[in-house]
Amino acid sequence: MGRSAGEELQGTGVSPGVGHGPALRLARSVPEPPAGGFEGDAGAETDRALEAMEATAQDLSARGERAGGQAQEVLSAQALMARDPALADDVRRRVGEGAAAARAVADAFAVYRDMLASAGEYMAARVADLDDVRDRIVARLMGVPVPGVPESDTPFVLVAADLAPADTATLDPAKVLAFVTREGGPTSHSAILARSLGLPAVVAGEAADRITDGTELLVDGTGGLVVADPTDEQVGRATARQAAREAAAANSGGPGATADGHRVPLLANIGGPKDLPAALENGAEGVGLYRTEFLFLDRGDAPGHEEQVEAYRTVLDAFPAGSKVVVRTLDAGADKPLAFLPPPGEEPNPALGVRGLRMMRRHPEMLSSQLSALAEAAGGAQAVLNVMAPMVTDAEDAAWFAERAREAGIEHAGVMVEVPAAALGARHLARSADFFSIGTNDLTQYACAADREAGGLGRFQDPWQPGVLELIATTARAAAAADRPCGVCGEAAADPLLACVLVGAGVTTLSMGASALPLVRAALGRATLEECKAAASAALDAPGADEAKRAAREALPGVAELGL
Amino acid sequence: MAERRVKVESEVGLHARPAALFVEAASKAPGEATVAKGDGAPVSAKSILAVMGLDVRHGDEITIRVDGEDADTVLDRLAEIAGAA
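YS: structure for the whole thing
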């Protein structure tokens, strides 16, 4: 790309919207510093090395302070590495023996790298942190760009192989117009981040590698299109498409329903009371997924009863009488470890280990205290409290949770369907679960055996995969047969086209990040229930994700008109 | 010089956050501060890379030595970090 003007590249859109501006690549590799010496005084060369180390340490600490949370811990540890006194001694010695500053730093790091790399599995991740520190110092000494999100005074389209949490921790959303990545899928880190920031994002495959810095890019994250050096006409068309979507979204007030009036409550996914304003602003009719981890993370002990009641009641009170608020009980373990709930032992694969309800079954007192706080918060609230357990696997799990919920005085207790075995066994789970909520991110991860965070697996991180659609349809059928509500609360619900397919498959509520609500509401309003059913049946008949999308578009002409 | 033997109680051993806290606290010692795994060779407790390189796991015993003024205060703090679950 970057050679012929207006060249179009069809990728996969993973976050909607249109962005247009110059490309800047995420710098990754720093050149190998040349072997050999330096000119001038060894003392001055040593100072140069030590100053670069200290400046890097300060930069890392500052980034950590801006990022906060877990990213800050990683960045602070990296700052300690950059100003490590043993490392500094080694650099001093090497410069004294005649090595140039950059070479001395690279060689000194190599000693520790070998030591850590041989120290076992856990250390492998720390080796990546160490390499990043070395690259930052060496880049500074060689006068080349420091790896990471580029610094720029003007907004740009960020182009990268993939974006890791460490890359994006300090990203300034005001400076980024869109993401174009080689790797990733709808549930990968960069896609979720892009959607949460409202930035368009396209996964472009290997073509992303050929985009050079400064190339003008037009990115349509809804249609999955990237255009290099676009013509005015191309920009005009994409902008008009986006304007039509925005107009449709802006005009889409009121409760969620199909064109012929089949009601589908549209709910918000929230991570705490802080997300309420955005949910209400975007017309959420309630909450379909209240993640309660924020109460428990980054602290040494569990939150007290009163603190919990307050956090739950604030959310219940934000919605009118009869609205649904679905709270997920603490989902600890795997990617969300808690200081006071350590895993029972070393887990070679935490995503398949003790997490979610499995962790609560080991600490039933923790679950009971959360459930009793929830029951108290529900008393006197107008909104209807629903409570669900994460990572339920079989009927015995569902029954155990329902029993705990009943004991605590919870009226509506349901289960999340994230494990393929739970989807396939939904008819058995329905005996004790009052409702289902399908968590499509984890369901996709487990059904396609593709880690959500892993790069290079984008094709499998896609809820349009036939196997995933089949599991959703199976769950919805079992729910309907048992007369149970069945919601979807994963990223799949935020895809307007897929949202219509889900409704056609029998899903009764859709819950998503608040920013996705207006366009999903608009899409739903442009399709009849019959069209949604036809789209679901066509998508379920398709052999692959792309074919399923095409078939759904054909069955949903009103939605396709918006370029979705 | 002050010396103490401590059993590491942190689930992640002397890695990640406990390692960073440990090194930050050791750096406050005006004199030398070292740490060794069991009876192994001591390394500088002020060096995160050396401390991580020891690969101290949950349940391992470490020997901490601190020189200079206030050695006992620094040692108390280091033992507390290493011994915290």
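YS: worth flagging: The two ends of chain B are 27 Å apart (CA to CA).
IM: good catch. Also Chain B has a mean pLDDT of 90.
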